[in-house]
Amino acid sequence: MYIKSFKELIVWQRGVDLAKEVYSMTKNLPAKEAFGLQSQMCRAAVSIPSNIAEGHRRGTKKDFVHFLRIADGSAAELETQVLIAESVHRNIDSSRAKLLLEEVQKMLTSMIRKVDLNATR
Length: 121
Description:
Elements: H1 10-26, H2 37-58, H3 61-88, H4 95-119
Helix pairs in contact: 1-2, 1-4, 2-3, 3-4
C-alpha cells in the first residue's frame, strides 16, 4: 500500500495525540518550569511527529529511516523527561502520556525495521 501523506501514518497520528497530551499534562507544572522541564517536554513531544512528517516527505527510504530514528530519539528524550517530572512534581498525572509514548515507541521500532529492511533490498 502506498502512503500519499504522512497524515495517513498511524504512528504520526499517535505522535500528534502524544504531543497534545504532553501540552495538557505540563500545564499542571509549576510556573517556574515554563522555561525548563515544560518547554523541554513540549519540544521533544512535537519533535516526534514533526520528524516522521519530514522524513516521509523527503521521499527516500534512507531519509525516512533516518528521520524515524531521530523521532525515536526524541521519544527516548521525552520518556526521560516524563520520569523526571513524575519524580520531582508528584501532582503530575502522566499515565495517558506514558501509554501513548509506549505505543509510539513500539510503532517507531517496528516501522524503522520494516522501512530499513525494504531500503536495503
